[in-house]
Amino acid sequence: MAALAASNGDAKVLAGGQSLVPMLNFRVVDAPLFVDINGIEGLDLIEEKEDGGLRIGALTRHFALETSVSVRDRFPVLHEAMKHVAHLAIRNRGTIGGSLSHADPAAELPMMAVLLDAKIVAAGPDGEREIPAGDFFTAPLTTVLAPDEIVVAVDLPGLPAATGWGFEEFAQRRGDFAVAGVAALVTREGGTVTNTRIALMGLHDTPVRARSAEAAFGESGIEAAAVAARQDADPMNDLHGSADYRRHLAEALTRRVLTAALERAAQ
Amino acid sequence: MTAKISITVTVNGTAQAADVEPRLLLADFLRENLDLTGTHVGCEHGICGACTVLMNGDSVRSCLTFAVQADGAEVETVESLGSIDELGPLQQAFREKHALQCGFCTPGMLMTATDMLRKYPLETDDDIRDGLSGNICRCTGYQNIVAAVRSAADKRDGK
Amino acid sequence: MSPPDDIDLTRPQFIGAKVMRREDPRLLAGEGNYVADIKRHGMLHIAFRRSDHAHALITNVDVSAAQAMEGVVAVYTGADITRLANPYQATSRMKNYQATFIPPLAVDKVRYVGEAVVAVVAISRYVAEDALALVELEYESLAVLVDPEEALKPDAPKLHDDLESNILAAREFARGEVAEAFADAAATAGGRFHFTRTTPVTIEARASVAEYDKGTRTLTLHCTTQIPGIVRDKLSEIFDLPGPRIRVIAPDVGGGFGGKTSLYSEEIVACAIARDLGKPVKWVSDRMEDLMTTGNAFDEIVDAEIAVAEDGRILGVKADVIGDVGAYSIYPWTATIEPVQVVSFLPGPYRIANYAARVRAVATNKTLTGAYRGVGRPISVFVMDRLLDMAARKIGMDPAEIRRRNLVNDDEFPYKAASGLVWDKSAFQACLREAADGIGYDELRREQAAARADGRWVGIGVACYAELTGVGSRIAVAPGMPINTGTETCNVAIDSTGAVTASFGLASQGQGMETTLAQVVAEELGVKVEDVDIVLGDTASVSHGTGTYASRGAVFGGGAGILAAKAVHEKIVRVAGHLLEAAVEDIETGNGDVRVKGTDKSMTIRDLARALYSDMGRVPKDMRDEIDNLEATKVYDPFFGTTTSASHMCLIEVDPETYKVEIKRYIVVEDCGRVINPLIADGQAHGGVAQGIGVALMEEVIHDKTGQVLTASLVDYVVPSAVEIPSIDVVHVEAELPGTVGGFRGLGEGGTIGAPACIANAISDALSPLGIEIIEIPATPERLFRLVEAAQAD
Description:
Chain A is α+β, with helices and mostly antiparallel strands. Chain A has twelve helices and 13 strands.
């Protein structure tokens, strides 16, 4: 903490290093100081909370999330998402704090944070603060973290009982960053849908909730929601897909995840 | 030049002490400082998997790890799996199935497979392909590598 | 010595056996010796400052700050290299060819992004890269040409001021009367086919270690090369060093696929620096350098059309090919090798009486095009087999059937193809038949109909190809090139310890030649496979050799190995006849022993060698004067070479929402002659098809309008992982063997040659209800999305 503060914003935090070190090796990023936080004790715990949620330490490795029974039971959508995160060697080192701080709009954990209404706990020289996931990401690779702050934990509020989930990611190859991804949570109580959350990955500057799709789903069902998702997306053109294609995927994947979520909610 | 840092890394069971620049990659530490050239560098950005080693039992990209981060850790490289005269069981499976051609991706494949065999049930060949998807091979088309890991998994499961 | 009666000493058959590879123990144990592993006392490291402009004049080079940095030993510019090395270019006798000089470090102009401009030599690679940032370079931009159709225009800015134009080569092929053929046709089909640019991506990137011995004035280059002999011969001219003073060694090399078959600037620079500084120097390419500077592949636009009769017979084919060959004509193959092979192989294994084709190789501000697995032929097959399927669709004929009607039949060999190539003999029809049987073609068509009714996009693909392999001196691999690709040398020697060594001018990058060639030599000599040491990749070991490319290893190595081993075997038998007191006809060898047939009189070959070499007087002088020693060197020239062919079939499914292509079944049926080691032959097919799948579905080198390489990392240049490659069935057809010594055909490139066509045909088949024809490769989900949108809009 002191080192970060002393560096006047020039230092970089090194956790898993799976996103930072490639950039260093390419020499597109440099800094006078790297603060390796891997040694900080106590930041890698997964604690079950009474509200049915979890508090996940920032240094929790992806592999720990992937294999956690608590995650599988309480947040099956997150359990599914973890399988798509890169490859085993990356998952052994990469951390949730690192992934959220790196804020790649095509990464799974930032999207999960938004979908699950996470509270991101940041610590700085002046103490800790809680930042709602919806406010945390501001632009590609950019968060509201101050240069002398680090993420220390992620708080996931518990989900209502009859909540079904869906997760679909499209990538050129297994483990690549998503060209596009959609995840949904649908809660059904007594035959009526009472809560819908849809989040988009790789379809905007940051992970976002698909608000018009959520509204359209409430009013008219899956088809309307899928079409509306096109409006919620504001994708870019790049080597891996055009904006048009990504919008097309937004619709197709939204359809798939809502169908799956409804089915699971009914079980 | 940045001041060097003293580290001690246990590599293949032997404690290795050295003074290294903070920016020295673990891959380069192994290959240059310790002459363990079995670990190969293929991309330096974590995609190809050729540099995979085990650190505290977990497969990691040695091109994305700094040597200073391995201070106090146990690192295992391909040289720990067996020797020329006595290949280990996984290496033997690769040989029998013709799971290597040029051999450059092979050490990384072996270390990844070692971790996979410990961590995952690998019930289907698709599971094996998933697990290997972070190691790129251009020579074999993967088919025989999958067969080799399958054969090792069967042995593991007593089949 | 008296072996028991039940041991059969007649020679065991190693050829055709699944012998485990001799290379494997060291490679598996991490004890391989790759160039990047080489360390020398006092070794320095090179890093290159490369152009970030695609086309520009270099107006200022200031290396003083870099030179002054601690740890930097020297900095070299183009002017320095001009002083240290003679200029060179790839020449050709082909008409209409324009050669280009290739400066190892750019002197006054840069012509592609990634071109090396300055070399920094330092105590470590880390320090050398630090110093790169201190090199000051100023450029004056010139117009950038990235579109070959712009670059070939007469008023286009010239990349090379001393040339007449940017068209580095132009050729035409014609047979029969194509205009008439099209006039008489029942149906025609055609399109503007585009096969994109790709790059080999060997997992081991290129590397060189050059050392200069001041005492013997010998330069040794350890290099990740497939062509040590070609490199040695050219470096000899570049540095005015005779053969013994310039040695090129390819140790363990991590894949080549053609990307390591050219002479590269970095190799010349490393040698120049080693000689100048008198210190060993090392350069290891990083992946970004590799993706920007290793010889690229393919990149052709082909306007092509086919005319067929009602019964599906091909009446004529015409094609106009524009090949984008990058900024210079690569050494040694020249810029002709890739695009010209497209048109010379376009007719394929089909009966075509009327053919007209033109090709132009056009220089642009991109990475040089070199040789990559398949060289031109993947495009030939893509175009020809797409045209066949398109025509078949027009006349309502099944794609396998239209091929049956047009493939050259067994009784038509030797068959002169429309481009002038001669197919000596190969099992074209049998391969197609067995591929259909193997994949269960008729059943698949039934399943496809059912799947279609369910709204699924299922497709079946077929592709047939033929290629010339093991091409001898009758035809140069790249016609008109100044190197001899038509021969290879083998020296087989049994030394005074009784050890057998066979040395070749070939080099191995994973093909297992230490094993396959040992199998061939062991069988011919009558020794055990494990007792034959194979020497490859070292120019000191044979007087002439070129290397491994064009699928020539088995034909040339196997042939030369057999000839040399036979000659040594004759000597063994003569000496044995004397030592065992028997007639030469009664002597046989096997398992390392020589025996008099039908008796128990025998001795080991090792003892025989000792008797000849070290036991004075045991073998009479006049016999020794005639045979000298147990050694022979033979040069093999297959002259015409031989035809290798295969049929590919596949079953794919396209996701109707994401447009991802899943390959569900894949079969290759090949006639590759006598197979030396089935494990290795199948492995080559698997690997070749995997690369073909990468090319068909995802690999693409992309330059933007200013010539920047956008695919400069493995995140952006996408190669298949284990998930994207299915299991591949490989079947070897037992057909009549070719006339090459040993009966071997070449293999190695077949997978990449047939797979893009097969997959493109399958996708077109899957999307045929929408009327979509795939004419652009790779068929990425993005491209399929565009095609489907356009089709559904109509």
